[in-house]
Write a structure and sequence with these properties.
Blueprint: E1 4-13, E2 18-24, E3 29-34, E4 39-43, E5 45-47, E6 50-57, E7 65-74, E8 77-82, E9 91-93, E10 101-106, H1 116-122, H2 126-136, E11 145-148, H3 160-173, H4 189-200, H5 203-211, E12 214-216, H6 231-237, H7 243-262, H8 265-269, H9 272-279, H10 283-299, E13 308-312, E14 315-320, H11 338-349, E15 355-360, H12 368-381, H13 387-399, H14 409-423, E16 431-436, E17 442-449, E18 458-463, H15 473-481, H16 485-497, E19 505-514, E20 518-525, E21 528-538, E22 544-553
Parallel strand pairs: 10-11, 11-12, 14-15, 15-16, 16-18
Antiparallel strand pairs: 1-2, 2-6, 3-4, 3-7, 5-6, 7-8, 7-9, 10-20, 13-14, 17-18, 17-19, 20-21, 21-22
Helix pairs in contact: 2-5, 4-7, 7-10, 9-10, 12-13, 12-16
Length: 556
């Protein structure tokens, strides 16, 4: 009889609709029934012997706490109840028109165990701490959304347990394309499924994933560290015999495990690839569809869109793909190619929301000294100090991970221009916020435009990283130096020497940096905005909890 392999994972929730994602061990019909009388059902579809379904619920009562259960039906087997009982259980809360909105967010979470040695080595898990908090709260206190801002899995640096499985599989398969370089790295769809099951199947977080709806976006470790950092990087990696296999595994699994749940029910019903996959006659046909899609998405970024929008009350959340849709051509480097940038402008300018939230895995506003370092590096790599320094600059770009928005100067300036348009309109929003992760430290930075008044709109960069993957001590020291005025002045001087002018935006860290595992929460109510920072700690018996580190009002 069928059983759940992973899930249920609550993905989309609005006032009256929800989507619930599951993976099962065999073909079956997945039915979700609610305590308020609504139900939905979907037949599973399979890829590489894994079976998936996304069940849609409609006509739910708004502003209501709804219990749900999952039933798996097979024509040959009796009904099997699969209830999400761990942690918070199978409960969702629909939105109400006048709801305040709390968004919990962060990034960079290693799938790993919670035994004493691993808790000591990499610390308590921010998501496990959040799960423990949610379990003890009334539904009215829950966050309405969980944003996972990249590096949900680490294909290039998995846990010790998965590394052991990889070594055993390599020994058994004896594949000449998978040599020593990727002996302990994820290389195909099956191996990616191990990562997701390890990360989201742990009992410490299953209840959270079943209760709080989630939005996700990809970052480099979904494929490999520094993915799409430069054209040189791409030219080198594309020569690897294992690369295309990894691309297919990464994008196919990301599309199934993460991207589909980002879409609303309407978007799912109109998604051509989703319709084709569900309608395919055989698993082999589905695998071919996803393989072709994945390779094309990697080589022709405009053929796929990973970015998306979620509107919640008076807030528009724009989740930006700041990794796959880059233009890496040295003379026109861009964080987003022309098609993606046009889409972003349309989403940001086509709303009268009181709060505009940009979700970008990479911080838009880095700690000041690091920003100037990346500015300088891009200019030097493009020849500001001559050919010899240009080669040095390109090597430094890769060696030091200099690939954030600051290292794509045109895109950085374009974003300033977009925000100027947003705040300069007759009814500007109360806030424009960038939510990010990636950098394995957390901070709150306030920004001001220098060419346009921001009296009516507050601008903040809110960065939370990691959920669970702390920085080594030497890199922590570098990040602390990055807010010191002498270091900022020196690197700003270097940027000027490379021919760069100051940006028409200024910012400084108001709080942080912090380096421990944790979660940040943004609360939006009417025109007010506030942020809370919590860090994860271990307790008796290996328990994990969140402890508040900082709280501040963003709007006056």
């Amino acid at each position: 009889m069928p059983t759940l392999v992973l899930g249920p994972i609550l993905r989309y929730v609005d006032n009256t609709r929800a989507t619930i994602w599951v993976e099962t061990d065999r073909e079956c019909t997945v039915e979700v029934r609610t305590s308020t009388g609504q139900s939905g059902a979907e037949n599973t579809w399979s890829v590489h012997e894994h079976h998936f379904a996304i069940v849609q619920l409609v006509d739910l009562p708004s502003g209501t706490v709804v219990d749900y259960s999952v039933t798996l039906r097979s024509s040959a087997d009796p009904v099997v109840e699969a209830s999400p009982t761990v942690a918070a259980g199978g409960t969702l809360r629909t939105a109400a028109e006048d709801d305040a909105l709390t968004v919990a967010f962060g990034s960079c979470r290693r799938g790993d165990t919670y035994d004493e040695d691993r808790l000591k080595a990499i610390g308590a898990d921010g998501l496990a701490g959040l799960a423990a908090r949610v379990k003890d709260q009334d539904a009215e206190q829950w966050p309405q959304l969980l944003l996972l801002l990249g590096d949900q899995v680490y294909a290039d640096d998995p846990s010790p347990e998965i590394k052991e499985r990889l070594r055993e599989r390599r020994e058994t398969q004896k594949d000449p394309e998978l040599g020593e370089e990727v002996l302990e790295e994820i290389c195909d769809f099956e191996e990616y499924t191990w990562l997701y099951r390890e990360s989201w199947g742990a009992e410490q977080v299953t209840g959270l994933m079943a209760t709080i709806p989630s939005c996700m976006i990809l970052d480099d470790h979904d494929l490999r560290d520094d993915w799409n950092s430069s054209l040189d990087w791409r030219k080198d990696i594309e020569q690897k015999p294992w690369w295309h296999r990894r691309v297919v595994g990464a994008f196919s699994s990301y599309w199934i495990y993460q991207h589909l749940g980002n879409l609303s029910p309407d978007e799912l019903q109109n998604d051509e690839l989703y319709l084709a996959v569900r309608g395919a006659a055989t698993a082999e046909d589905r695998e071919k569809l996803l393989s072709d899609f994945s390779l094309r998405a990697d080589s022709e970024p405009t053929s796929a869109r990973w970015s998306y929008v979620r509107d919640l009350g008076n807030t528009r959340i724009i989740m930006i793909d700041s990794r796959c849709s880059r233009d890496l051509t040295p003379e026109r480097r861009a964080m987003l190619d022309e098609a993606e940038w046009k889409w972003l402008r349309e989403q940001a300018l086509g709303t009268d929301a009181r709060h505009i939230v940009f979700g970008t895995s990479l911080p838009y506003l880095m700690l000041p000294a690091l920003h100037h370092l990346e500015q300088w590096n891009e200019a030097v790599a493009q020849g500001a100090w001559g050919k010899r320094w240009g080669k040095v600059g390109e090597k430094l770009r890769l060696a030091l991970d200099l690939e954030h928005w600051a290292a794509f100067g045109k895109s950085f300036e374009d974003m300033v221009g977009l925000v100027e348009e947003i705040v300069d309109r007759p009814n500007p929003p109360a806030s424009a916020l960038w939510l990010s992760g990636d950098v394995h430290c957390s901070y709150v930075a306030e920004a001001e435009l220098t060419r346009t008044s921001t009296d009516s709109t507050v601008l903040y960069q809110l960065t939370m990283s990691p959920f669970r993957n702390p920085l080594d001590l030497p890199i922590r020291v570098v990040n602390r130096l990055a807010i010191r005025k002498p270091m900022v002045r020196f690197l700003r001087f270097l940027a000027h020497r490379a021919g760069l002018e100051d940006h028409p935006i200024t910012w400084q860290a108001e709080a942080g940096p912090w380096f421990d595992n944790g979660v940040m929460s943004l609360r939006l109510e009417g025109d007010t905005a506030s942020v809370r920072v919590d860090h994860a700690q271990t307790g008796p018996g290996g328990s994990q909890k969140l402890v508040q580190t900082h709280q501040m009002q963003l709007t006056t």
